[in-house]
Specification:
alpha/beta; TIM Barrel; eight-stranded parallel beta barrel; 46% helix; globular
Length: 295
């Protein structure tokens, strides 16, 4: 395991990494000052690190100049920053390599590698050879990783950890956590709908889209889990589960819009920039139910 991957693994252990959204208008326009204030608010309210341009941040849809600017604003906050790379519809490996190089040049701590439809171990190696940034592998519900492929990825010296985000596959989540820990890598939960259980199964850090708003709720579960008060852990988990039930539901890709609604209600972003033009349309009356779940 490369020393840079070991450093990132140890740095993130026990941490809450907020998978940040990218505030934008209905037309997809991004205001960088709004991005800065939004990201700073997540850190102020409990996020130990930030993941930008990942699934929640709609990274695959954003232009290179916008991506670079978002990374720069995140890095300026002084916390570890992970950058989502890859994920384009055409599985453009050259594009992912270029994104990783930009992330390295701008001071990111590591990259979160979107799963490829092709040779995933080769994808990770190509990104590593090009950028030499430690990598977090990604077991995403849209492209679950076969166990033999996962084992090969976890043997790569540049892989610091693996994030599992399978949503409802408890056995798959347990397997991913076990394989990751057996490989000496950091087991990271991205399980917004199985958050408390995934910690009990051995996850050692969190990288979750539900922390794109109300990060204090997620941080409270992690603090309670690290303590010794079972009742506090149960109560904190119940509060988070109520929010997850309202936001991570069908249509699942609508969770980004729901989190933006919450971020706007908290005052983190203006309503004008609480839009997800890349997700499914949601009925406006759903907004009230989502906001109620956070109270």
């Amino acid at each position: 395991m490369d020393i840079s991957a070991q450093v990132l693994r140890d740095r993130l252990r026990g941490s809450l990494v907020a998978a940040a959204a990218t505030p934008m208008t209905e037309a997809g326009e991004v205001d960088l000052d709004i991005v800065s204030r939004y990201l700073a608010s997540l850190v102020a309210d409990g996020a130990d690190a930030l993941a930008v341009l990942a699934h929640t941040g709609r990274g695959p849809f954003l232009t290179p100049p916008v991506r670079a600017a978002v990374i720069g604003r995140a890095v300026a906050l002084g916390v570890p920053v992970l950058v989502g790379v890859g994920g384009a519809a055409a599985d453009d490996l050259d594009g992912a390599i270029g994104e990783a190089r930009v992330a390295a040049d701008l001071g990111a701590a590591g990259v979160l590698v979107f799963p490829s439809a092709g040779d995933r171990p080769a994808q990770h190696d190509a990104i590593w050879q090009a950028a030499r940034l430690p990598m977090i592998a990604f077991d995403l519900y849209t492209r679950p990783c076969p166990p033999d492929v996962m084992r090969e990825i976890l043997r790569h010296p540049g892989v610091a950890g693996l994030k599992t985000a399978l949503l409802s596959d408890a056995m798959g989540c347990q397997r991913a956590i076990t394989l990751t820990r057996e490989a000496g890598r950091l087991a990271i939960t991205g399980e917004d709908r199985m958050f408390g259980p995934s910690l009990l199964w051995g996850a050692e850090a969190a990288l979750v889209g539900i922390a794109a708003a109300h990060p204090d709720l997620t941080a409270a579960v992690l603090r309670a889990f690290a303590g010794s008060d079972l009742r506090e852990f149960d109560q904190a988990s119940a509060r988070l589960d109520r929010l997850a039930t309202a936001t991570f539901t069908d249509p699942m890709e609508g969770y980004v819009q729901r989190m933006l609604w919450l971020a706007a209600a908290e005052g983190r972003i203006p309503d004008t920039h609480a839009h997800d033009p890349y997700g499914p349309g949601l009925p406006e009356d759903e907004r009230a139910d989502v906001l109620k779940s956070a109270t």
